[in-house]
C-alpha cells in the first residue's frame, strides 16, 4: 500500500519546483515535506526527487506522480469525497501554443464549468506533446502525432489551417519580384522555437526549398502575429488570427490563397475517470466548431 500523504508531498514538490512552495500548497512546514519525501525515498530505496532550482522528478518519481494524478482523478468521481469540500483535483494537459491561442480555451472553459475542476496546461510543440503523455507528465494532449500511445486512445480533431504572411512593407522589401527559393533564404523568418519546423515544411512543400534563412526566435503566438504586422519577418500564422489583419491590409499572404493544414489529434489516457470523458467531449465539440473537417 502506497503512503499517499508522502506521495502528495512528492507530487507537490515536483509541480511547484521547491519544498517551500510545496509546503505552502499542502499547508504544512517545509521540514514536514522534506521528511515525507526523504522517508518515502528511504522506504523504496530509490531517489524520487532531484533537489535543485527547480526540483524535478527522477524517472521513478515521474511514475509515482503520474499514478498520484490518476488516483486524484478517480477520487473526484466519488460523491462522498467530492462533497467533503477537500482540495479540487486538476487535470494535466499538454497543448500547442497556437491551439491555446485559438480554439482550445473554449474546451477548457466548458470542462471547468461542467466539472468545477482545475486544469494544469503545459505548452509544447504539437509534434512533441505526445512525449509528455508517454512520460506520464500529463493525462491528455493536443498533438499532430497520430502514433498510438500505450494505454491511451487517439481521436482525430481536424486540421488547424495556417497562412504564410508578412507585412506589405516587408514583402516589398524582400520579395519585390515575388517569392521563390532564393528570396525565401534571404528574407528573415520567424520560428517559435527549435522544435518549430512549420516554416521549413511550408517552404519545402510550396517551393521545394530547403529553408536556411536568417531566423528570429519568437516563443509567443501573439508575438508572432504582432511582429509580422510590424514588419520584422514572415511566418506561418493560424488563419483565424491572420484573417482580420489580411482583410485590414496590415498583413499579406506570400502565396495568395495558399494554406497549410496541420492535422490535430486528441490523445487521452484510457483511465476510467469521468473528468477525462467530460474533457474529451468538450474538445471534440469545440474542434468541430473551430477546426477544419476531419478528412475522410
Automatic annotation (TrEMBL):
Positions of the HTH lysR-type domain: 2-58
ATP-binding is among the record's keywords: no
Xref: InterPro entries: ArgP (IPR017685), LTTR (IPR050176), LysR_HTH_N (IPR000847), LysR_subst-bd (IPR005119), WH-like_DNA-bd_sf (IPR036388), WH_DNA-bd_sf (IPR036390)
Keyword tags: DNA-binding, Transcription, Transcription regulation
GO molecular function: DNA binding; DNA-binding transcription factor activity
Annotated TM spans: none
Protein family: Belongs to the LysR transcriptional regulatory family.
PANTHER family: HTH-TYPE TRANSCRIPTIONAL REGULATOR ARGP, TRANSCRIPTIONAL REGULATOR
Name under which the protein is recorded: LysR family transcriptional regulator ArgP
Amino acid at each position: 500500500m502506497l503512503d499517499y500523504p508522502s506521495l502528495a508531498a512528492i507530487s507537490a514538490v515536483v509541480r511547484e519546483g521547491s519544498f517551500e512552495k510545496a509546503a505552502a500548497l499542502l499547508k504544512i512546514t517545509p521540514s514536514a515535506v522534506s521528511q515525507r519525501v526523504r522517508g518515502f525515498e528511504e522506504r523504496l530505496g530509490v531517489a524520487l526527487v532531484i533537489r535543485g532550482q527547480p526540483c524535478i522528478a527522477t524517472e521513478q518519481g515521474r511514475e509515482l506522480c503520474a499514478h498520484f494524478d490518476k488516483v486524484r482523478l478517480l477520487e473526484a468521481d466519488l460523491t462522498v469525497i467530492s462533497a467533503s469540500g477537500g482540495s479540487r483535483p486538476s487535470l494535466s494537459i499538454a497543448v500547442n501554443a497556437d491551439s491555446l491561442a485559438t480554439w482550445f480555451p473554449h474546451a477548457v472553459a466548458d470542462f471547468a464549468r461542467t466539472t468545477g475542476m482545475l486544469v494544469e496546461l503545459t505548452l509544447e510543440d504539437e509534434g512533441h506533446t505526445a512525449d509528455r503523455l508517454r512520460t506520464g507528465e500529463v493525462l491528455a494532449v493536443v498533438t499532430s502525432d497520430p502514433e498510438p500511445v500505450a494505454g491511451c486512445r487517439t481521436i482525430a480533431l481536424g486540421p488547424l489551417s495556417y497562412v504564410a504572411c508578412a507585412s506589405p512593407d516587408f514583402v516589398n522589401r524582400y520579395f519585390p519580384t515575388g517569392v521563390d527559393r532564393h528570396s525565401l533564404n534571404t528574407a528573415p523568418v520567424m520560428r517559435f522555437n527549435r522544435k518549430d519546423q512549420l516554416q521549413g515544411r511550408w517552404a519545402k512543400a510550396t517551393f521545394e526549398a530547403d529553408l536556411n534563412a536568417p531566423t528570429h526566435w519568437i516563443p509567443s503566438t501573439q508575438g508572432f502575429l504582432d511582429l509580422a504586422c510590424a514588419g520584422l519577418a514572415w511566418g506561418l500564422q493560424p488563419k483565424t488570427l491572420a484573417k482580420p489583419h489580411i482583410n485590414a491590409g496590415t498583413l499579406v499572404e506570400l502565396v495568395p490563397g495558399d494554406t497549410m493544414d496541420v492535422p490535430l489529434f486528441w490523445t487521452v489516457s484510457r483511465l476510467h475517470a469521468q473528468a477525462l470523458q467530460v474533457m474529451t467531449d468538450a474538445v471534440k465539440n469545440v474542434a468541430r466548431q473551430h477546426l477544419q473537417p476531419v478528412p475522410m
